[in-house]
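ok trying this again, last paste got cut off
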Amino acid sequence: MDDATRSALLNLLTAYFGDASTEEGVRGLVFVTRTNPDYHRDYTLALEAGLAAARQGDHELVTGMRRNFTPFLRDAAEAEQILTEILDAYRAAYAAATD
């Protein structure tokens, strides 16, 4: 995962999920992206890249997520679980909002 994508992902996680539940964060994301396909694309790509990095055990991603999003993150497997939950919930909510 390159630095720019990691930074975009960490900013997204902090902005939408830092002080909110997954459901609240997803609602905020969908509010912004349902009328802006470029944001939808960018946010989806960032989440997908984060998920791929977590699956590869990307230590820098885990460190960044600990520093910016969830200080008690154990490892890349837990990062994968969190990002999967967010991405799945976002995709479902976006589909429902744009149908």
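PB: full thing came through this time. The longest helix spans residues 76-98.
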